[in-house]
Design brief:
globular; five-stranded mixed β-sheet; binds 5'-O-[(R)-(carboxyoxy)(hydroxy)phosphoryl]adenosine; binds zinc ion
Length: about 325
């Protein structure tokens, strides 16, 4: 089954064709990040206008790369939640129009859950029960997945998401948007122990996360420093990265010890972070080497249409077009 996946929840306009949920036949991503960079973050109105501008060229390119006629697509999947409403509407309306004109079934997709499926697109097949850490710009969730479609939320952030914590603290250091990759690059020459930033809720009994106190602590520290020279900036970046990664790894391992999953599956934009990838691997080896760790290739961590198509294959619940509504919330 070939599914067309459409993703427009934020500043990426992405369309892919995926065969049987696992094989990427085409995966085209246009991003307005370069434009958003000039303003230090995503401006929803601007992101939506950019989506409208590029969605048809992206569709064209995705179908060209697929190499067959669009008529041979079996089904159309689209992110309908959560995200920026103006951006979501562009993808949802495109999906409905295609479904209507081509007479194909439509599957609405939850973007956050779809991130998990990057792990089925990389030649892997994580075994259940899987403990999923989903870390993106808007979400930080620990989810227990007993099967496809069987998701239990163990805990989530009470305020900022992990990616947002990277983005906001990067801004304090004068680093560009998106902050995660910029902090990672800067941290390479820094000392992660130079500053001891708070690890929000690290000792709590639940699986909740909190990054707002951490963000305030970084703000206070940067205000204390008269001029941030390049070594100080690198040290701050390394310490920021260490604090965020520490909490994510500790909470995941705590949940793994309680729920004893067969797999730990990491996904979302922050999963591209090499310190998180390395530290999670180390922690699993130290605590329980029998759990398999899955982290997607970097290109599949951030937003793309392939994860939307893969989710739709494994959670195949078509809906009439009237019931496919774009909403900001999960
Ligand atoms: O999943 P994603 O592409 O979009 C959302 O659904 O939000 O995630 C984007 C987030 C941004 O906050 C970005 O700073 C973060 O992922 N990110 C990273 C890295 N690459 C992207 N964070 C840390 N290290 C990275 N290498
Ligand atoms: Zn995302």
């Amino acid at each position: 089954m070939n599914i067309l996946g459409i993703e427009t929840s934020c500043d990426e306009t992405a369309i892919a064709v995926v065969k049987n949920g696992t094989e990427i036949l085409s995966n085209v991503i246009a991003s307005s990040q370069e434009l958003q960079k000039q303003y230090g973050g995503v401006y929803p109105e601007m992101a939506a206008r950019k989506q409208a501008e590029v969605i048809i060229p992206v569709l064209n390119s995705a179908i060209n790369k697929y190499g067959s006629s669009i008529e041979t697509i079996d089904c159309i999947a689209v992110t309908n939640r959560p995200g920026l409403i103006g951006s979501l509407l562009i993808g949802v309306e495109m999906a409905k129009t295609l479904g209507f004109t081509l007479n194909k079934p439509l599957i609405p997709v939850n973007h956050v859950k779809a991130h998990i499926y990057a792990n089925w697109l990389s030649g892997s097949n994580p075994q259940f029960t899987a403990l999923c850490l989903i870390v993106s710009g808007g979400h930080t969730e620990l989810v227990l997945m007993k099967n496809h479609g069987d998701f239990t939320l163990l805990g989530q952030t009470q305020d900022d998401a992990a990616g947002e914590a990277f983005d906001k603290t990067a801004r304090l250091l004068g680093l560009p948007y998106p902050g995660g990759p910029a902090i990672e690059k800067e941290a390479k020459n820094g000392d992660p122990k130079a500053y001891s930033f708070p690890r929000g809720m690290i000792g709590s009994k639940d699986y909740k996360f909190s990054f707002s106190g951490f963000k305030t602590a970084v703000l206070r520290e940067t205000k204390k420093i008269e001029t941030i020279d390049s070594q100080t900036k690198a040290d701050l970046a390394a310490s920021i990265q260490e604090a965020i990664v520490d909490v994510l790894v500790k909470k995941t391992i705590k949940a793994a010890l309680e729920y004893k999953p067969k797999s730990i599956v990491v996904s979302g934009g922050v999963a591209a972070n090499s310190r998180l990838r390395g530290k999670m691997k180390e922690a699993i080896e130290v605590n329980n080497s029998s759990i398999d760790l899955y982290i997607p290739p970097i290109k599949l961590c951030t937003d793309n249409g392939a994860i939307i198509a893969s989710y739709a294959y494994f959670n195949n619940h078509p809906k009439p077009w009237k019931n496919i509504v774009a909403t900001s919330y999960s």
